[in-house]
Amino acid sequence: MAQKVRIIGVPMDLGQSRRGVDMGPSALRGAGLQASIKKLGLQVEDIGNLSVKQPEEMPVGEKRAKYLQEIAETCGDVAAAAEKSLIEGFLPLVLGGDHSIAAGVAAGVANHFRKEKKQIGYLWLDAHGDMNTPESSPSGNVHGMPLAAIMGYGAPELVDLLGFKPKAEPGNIVIVGARDLDAQERKIVKKSGVHVFTMRDIDERGMREVMADALKYAMDDTAGIAVSLDMDFVDPADAPGVGTPVRGGVTYREAHLAMESRRNQSHPRRTQPHRPPRRRTRPLRPRPENPVNSFKSSVVS
Predict the structure, then answer these.
(1) Are 153 and 97 in contact (CB under 8 A)?
(2) What's the CA angle centered on 206, arms 243 and 232, to 5 degrees?
(3) Are strands 91-96 and 224-229 parallel, antiparallel or unpaired?
């Protein structure tokens, strides 16, 4: 892993209809993000926020994909910043903003490795699949479309960022924490071939085991992986300030373990003593009916 981290703020809220997520980069910085990273022994550089247009400045445009042109322009800037960071030896840490920016991050990272004839995997930590297209989306909000675009489905403005598609192969894309998919989106996800671990998987198997399998798929014959963590991956009891909260998510500590699992995967010499699984000491939170049980069996255990 790169020993230098570059923070890139993207205060985007064009992709969804609930205002306020554009304050995410400022909130994370104000919470001491840079100091926390330095405590890990890493060098940190913060280049500030990229310029993002505001909803008040422009018409919505096509209702099936609201503000699509403006979002695509910002994603192009995000892609350039992410790729430049990798070229200069930095790990790009992109702060949103709504999740539409992930299409730009994926484009920049994938393009960097594509020039070396290598591919990336993608770890998608999210309550949602984000695999709608303008035709399937019930809301027209683009924050529900970035993973589809990464795979080559949907609006050409996002699909064709930097002139190539897909940004990652379905077999190397893993969704973890899914619990709220739209009806048409479920069909797209099932057909696509991505690996999906639902909240039921996490409840039954534990985060450590789920992440071990997820990383195995994402890192299979790839140069590395990009990780996208939508804060609604976490239960609203721990992360209420999100645009689309869904009850029944992971706990604060489980979210930490998910990211620690990725870190440990980068250090194969580290071994953990075997311990029998502990019973949960916290009360179980209500889980909504699982929307992806119909294709849960497609995930290889």
Answers:
(1) no
(2) 5
(3) unpaired
- C-alpha–C-alpha distance, residues 109 and 173, integer Å: 14
Cα–Cα distance between 77 and 95 in angstroms, integer? 14
> Which is nearest to 220 in space by CA: 176, 266, 263, 172?
172
pLDDT at 57: 83
Q: What is the CA radius of gyration of the chain?
A: 18
* 36 vs 267, higher pLDDT: 36
End-to-end Cα separation, the chain, in angstroms: 27
Any idea which architecture 4-271+283-298 has in CATH? 3-Layer(aba) Sandwich (3.40)
Q: What is the pLDDT of residues 93-140, one digit of tens each?
A: 999 999 999 999 999 999 999 999 999 999 999 999 999 999 999 999
Give yes or no for residue 147 having a pLDDT over 50.
yes
Q: Which residue has the tokens 């991050």?
A: 105
